[in-house]
């Protein structure tokens, strides 16, 4: 039996005796170019990575895209990230809260989550933290449950990954596992117009393999269908992401599964004013009304985009707003032709990524799929690709 509820952290009641509580926070995107890393880690610390919250949890799962891009030292964000990781590890150890991390989209994570397990060893913290970057079925003795882990772009297509996971179940002697943690897209998330262009999983196939729940990252908007729940991103990362952000809490007790979408009430504001069909007075009045809402925040920080008709010039007002609200990024545009792929495909669809990263692990399958190559040429080409990749 599954029930779904929306709540906030302050409304989330303490778990009852015998209940197992798991928290899933996905698509964090540390190192993001618009939503600052220090802001992301601050909201995480205030609401999740603190003693009060973690003492109430049996485990924390991160279903991919903990990072936004490849960060090389000395990247300005790395100090904040390293400090946050050390804090998270020490809290995990002191509260006895295991952490399980799944590799997400290769162009985001770049396997940088391994840094967490490395720092755990270097600092000799000995927190119970595991990172999974391979298709796996884990009999987690600490958690007392079986978990399937499905990283993004494991194979060139979701169909190939599905076949391999089915074979893995059979090899391990399982017909199902308690939970499946994934990164990618299911069919119900994708409008018909995009179904042929976006590789996706089929919910009816995967639901039979999960006893309790399937939690899948990648899509930045919270969605659910049957046993499948999409946490959405923890933070707002762009305009047109005005929807509620947060994480999932999964409670399991005597076969009853309660799933809560817990809101991140501190998520950064991204507001777009479409004033292309309004007069300059109307646009200015609306913008100033919106800017006052930033001023009401504990810390007035966020992003405001103002679109206005090119026959009007409000550049002087834009400059005034930028000076008056130093931590609110105000940008103006006299064009109304922003490309909105998600609007064409469906209002609730957030297309994240699209390209397949070529790696030594998947190059053979890509070549065989796209062309006819004999074994000698294939091995030679693979070596050339690996040499190029090693220089990147």
Please characterize this protein's 3D structure:
- With 392 residues, the chain is an alpha/beta fold.
- It has three domains: 2-263, Purple Acid Phosphatase, chain A, domain 2, CATH 3.60.21; 269-345, no CATH class; 358-392, no CATH class.
- The chain has helices at 37-47, 51-54, 78-95, 106-109, 114-122, 158-172, 203-207, 280-295, 315-324, 341-345, 363-370, 375-390, and strands spanning 2-8, 20-24, 59-62, 99-102, 129-132, 136-140, 145-150, 177-183, 210-217, 223-225, 228-230, 246-253, 256-263, 269-275, 302-308, 328-333.
- The strands form three sheets. A seven-stranded mixed sheet has the order 1-13-12-2-3-4-5, covered by helices on one side. Strands 6-7-8-9-11-10 form a six-stranded mixed sheet. Strands 14-15-16 form a three-stranded parallel sheet, covered by helices on one side.
- Strand 15, helix 9 and strand 16 form a beta-alpha-beta unit.
What is the CATH third-level topology name of the largest domain? Purple Acid Phosphatase, chain A, domain 2
Number of strands: 16
CATH superfamily of the largest domain: Metallo-dependent phosphatases
The total domain count is 3
Largest sheet: 7 strands, mixed
Q: Kindly name the structural category.
A: alpha/beta
Question: Termini separation (Å)?
Answer: 49 Å
Average pLDDT over all residues? 87
List low-pLDDT spans: 336-348, 351-358, 362-375, 384-392
Question: Which band does the percent of strand residues land in?
Answer: 15-25%
* Broad shape: globular
Total DSSP helices: 12
User: Quick one: CATH class of the largest domain?
Assistant: Alpha Beta
Strand order of the largest sheet: 1-13-12-2-3-4-5
Sequence of secondary-structure elements: EEHHEHEHHEEEHEHEEEEEEHEHEHHH
| Helical content class | 25-40%
């Amino acid at each position: 039996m599954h029930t779904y509820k929306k709540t906030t952290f302050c409304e989330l009641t303490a778990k009852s005796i015998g209940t197992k509580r798991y928290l899933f926070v996905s698509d964090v995107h540390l190192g993001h170019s618009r939503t600052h890393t220090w802001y992301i880690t601050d909201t995480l610390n205030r609401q999740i990575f603190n003693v009060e919250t973690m003492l109430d949890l049996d485990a924390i799962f991160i279903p991919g895209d903990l990072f936004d891009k490849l960060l090389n030292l000395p990247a300005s964000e790395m100090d904040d990230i390293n400090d946050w990781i050390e804090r998270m590890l020490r809290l995990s150890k002191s509260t006895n809260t295991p952490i399980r991390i799944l590799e997400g989209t290769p162009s985001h994570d770049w396997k940088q989550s391994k840094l967490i397990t490395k720092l755990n060893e270097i600092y000799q913290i000995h927190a119970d933290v595991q990172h999974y970057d391979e298709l796996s079925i884990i009999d987690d003795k600490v958690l007392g449950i079986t978990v399937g882990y499905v990283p993004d772009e494991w194979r060139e297509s979701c169909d190939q990954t599905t076949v391999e996971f089915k074979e893995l179940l059979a090899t391990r002697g399982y017909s199902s596992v308690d939970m499946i943690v994934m990164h990618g897209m299911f069919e119900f998330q994708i409008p018909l117009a995009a179904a042929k262009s976006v590789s996706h999983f089929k919910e009816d196939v995967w639901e039979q393999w999960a006893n309790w729940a399937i939690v899948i990252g990648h899509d930045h908007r919270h969605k659910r269908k049957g046993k499948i729940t999409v946490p959405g991103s923890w933070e707002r990362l762009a305009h047109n992401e005005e929807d509620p952000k947060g994480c999932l809490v999964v409670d399991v007790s005597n076969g009853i599964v309660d799933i809560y979408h817990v809101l991140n009430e501190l998520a950064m504001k991204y507001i777009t004013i479409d004033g292309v069909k309004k007069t300059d007075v109307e646009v200015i009045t609306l913008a100033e009304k919106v800017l006052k809402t930033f001023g009401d925040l504990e810390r007035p920080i966020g992003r405001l985009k103002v679109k206005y008709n090119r026959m009007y010039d409000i550049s002087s007002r834009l400059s005034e707003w930028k000076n008056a609200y130093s931590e609110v990024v105000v940008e103006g545009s006299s064009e109304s032709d922003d490309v909105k792929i998600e609007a064409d495909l469906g209002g609730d669809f957030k297309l994240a990524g699209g390209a397949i990263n070529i790696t030594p692990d998947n190059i053979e399958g890509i070549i065989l799929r796209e062309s006819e190559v004999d074994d000698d040429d294939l091995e030679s080409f693979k070596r050339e690709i690996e040499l190029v990749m090693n220089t990147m």
